[in-house]
Each structure stands twice: as C-alpha cells, then as structure tokens.
Amino acid sequence: xxxxxxxxxxxxxxxxxxxxxxxxxxxxxxxxxxxxxxxxxxxxxxxxxxxxxxxxxxxxxxxxxxxxxxxxxxxxxxxxxxxxxxxxxxxxxxxxxxxxxxxxxxxxxxxxxxxxxxxxxxxxxxxxxxxxxxxxxxxxxxxxxxxxxxxxxxxxxxxxxxxxxxxxxxxxxxxxxxxxxxxxxxxxxxxxxxxxxxxxxxxxxxxxxxxxxxxxxxxxxxxxxxxxxxxxxxxxxxxxxxxxxxxxxxxxxxxxxxxxxxxxxxxxxxxxxxxxxxxxxxxxxxxxxxxxxxxxxxxxxxxxx
Length: 305
Ligand code: GLU
Known about the structure:
Layout: H1 2-15, E1 37-42, E2 47-51, E3 57-58, H2 63-75, H3 77-80, H4 97-102, H5 113-121, H6 127-143, H7 152-161, H8 163-175, H9 182-193, E4 196-197, H10 199-210, H11 225-238, H12 244-250, E5 255-257, E6 262-267, E7 271-276, H13 287-300
Helix pairs in contact: 1-13, 2-11, 5-8, 5-9, 6-9, 7-9, 8-9
The structure holds glutamic acid.
C-alpha cells in the first residue's frame, strides 16, 4: 500500500504543471501548482495520506454535493427534482445557451451552476444568514471538522465577477423556476462555493457517501441511505463536468470536482478520497487530481464498473 500511495503522489506532481489555475475568479489565480496531495479514508475511519493533504482550498463546485444532500434531507427527492432534472449535459458547467435552447423549463442537473443555484434556493431557513449557517453546520457534520468557514476574499471575488451566474439566476427567475430573490440565492451560492476545506475534509465526506450515510469516524448515521445513493449516482453521471463520461471509463469512481482544484470521490463500500492540485484541464478538472484518482483506481481496483 505504501508504494502505491507514494507513486500516486508522484504521478499527480508530474502533471500538475500541465494545466492552468482558474483565473475567471481572480482570487483562485493565486493557487500554487506545487501544492498536490490526497487523503483516502476507509469506512472505519482509517486514513491514508500523502503530500499537501492539509492545505486548505475553496471547495467551489464540490459544495454542490453538500447543498444537494442538505436540500434532499430538507425536502425529499420528489420536491427537489420538481426544480431540477437529473440528466448529464455534455456542455460546460456555466453554459447559458444550452440551457435556454435545449431545456429551458428546468436545469439539466444539480451539478451545473444553474441546477446548483436552484437547489441552494430550496435549503430551509429564514433568510441568507440562517441558510448559510445551516450549510456550514451541515458541512461540519459531514467532515467532522467543527470550524467550517468560507473564505471572505474568494466570496467577494466571485460576487464581483459572477456575471455569468447572475445571468443564469435571472434567466431562471424569468421562467419562474427560481423562487424568491435571485440576489439572495446568488449571494448564498457564492458563499457556499467559497467554503474552505482540505483533502481530509472531502475524503471524510466521500467516506460518508461510500458508507451509505454512516459517518466513518463516529459511526453515526448523518444522511438518509437513499440520499447518499441519489447523490453518488448523480456524481457518477454529472460530477466531472462535461468529462464525466471519460472519467467513468478511466476511473469509475463517483466523484465531484471544483475549480478550486479539489476532487471528492466516494468508492461505495470502501473509501472516501479527497485530492488537491490547483491546476485545471480544459474542462475544469484538477490535472493532478484526475491522475491520482486514475492511478489509485487502477492499482486498488476501485472502479465500480
Ligand atoms: N463558484 C464557481 C462558479 O460558480 C464554481 C464552479 C466550479 O467549481 O465548477 O463559477
């Protein structure tokens, strides 16, 4: 096992200069390609780590998994999927054209920005303050890390430059699928995307999902089994942007990536995996993270297919 973990890190480092850090959110452009690491947790809470696994980064789209889980726990499956489909798109995560032209009545899935914003708007709570507190507390429940916070600078950077997301939110207001005040939902979404975490945190969330909702460290049930199942399925079909099909073939692990450079993986019945490497490929996935996941999958036979 030690050799496999060492090699996985070497593989990740090899390709971490092969992409570029996200620049469309100016704060993310400060990521250092040398920061590569990963954590893997089994269902008893045993931990396997290498590299910069404690380095914190903003979870970005990985929080779409968290908000979907919370919305499902709050409202149930039927209600959530009245507002969002569960179909992969084959289009970029922030595409406006495909949404309006192909399927304007509701977003394709909860892992693209439009779908995630609708899902976030369904989270229960009085106003923005209570809702963000609930998202942070729920993240802490899943990670076991009591001090979940969001990065104020990244949040403000996104708020300042998030015109594409603003367009999507107002488009959804115009069609009637987004209820309430779009500015409030956008703000909440930007805060949510800026939540800070490390590989250990996301590996733990992965292990909760891998264990059908049982927390690997406390042994407590923190999610309904059904909700863990739904989210793992959607991660498999939609979690790696428009590279989800290729990733299913090359790796076969239900996963969700974020433009902050993290990838959360859940290997049913076996492991949660969290990887980090800030440089991204053209689809928006961490180059190092993909390589590490593929290497671990091959060597430890982790593909679900
Ligand atoms: N906050 C980012 C956005 O909305 C999240 C994108 C991502 O990680 O895929 O553009």
